[in-house]
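Workshop exercise sheet. Pairs work together: one partner reads the sequence aloud, the other fills in the structure field after running the prediction. Swap roles for the next sheet.
Pair: D.N. / O.F.
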Amino acid sequence: MIQTEIKATALELTPAIKNYLEAKVLMIDKFVDSSVGGVLADVELAKTTGRHHLRGDIFKAEINLQANGNFYRASSTKEDLYAAIDEMKDEIIRQITEKKSKKQTLFKKGARRLKGFLRGWGR
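Structure field:
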């Protein structure tokens, strides 16, 4: 289970937003192995205006995830808060699966080399 800390900047964290965010963070739990160690997610939701005030409000969703000794970070800025949360979730899942895929590829490459070595040695 992912331990989640949520911070809201310049916007009110309503129960609907909190429930939506927690549901998206639970989706990330499928991609990390939380049985090995603690998984901590720091999420910040913010409403920014500044130079974007002519287009309306701009929302930012950012996550910092620590899982199994690895650190992942994703951020998204959109005109819709829910779209920013979705894009943030997709980006963090992409990073996690990319790292897992890279580890598996390196393992398989090493196993192929070992197999080739053992075949050549037995002749």
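Discussion prompt: Residues 26 and 102 are 24 Å apart (CA to CA). What would you look at next?
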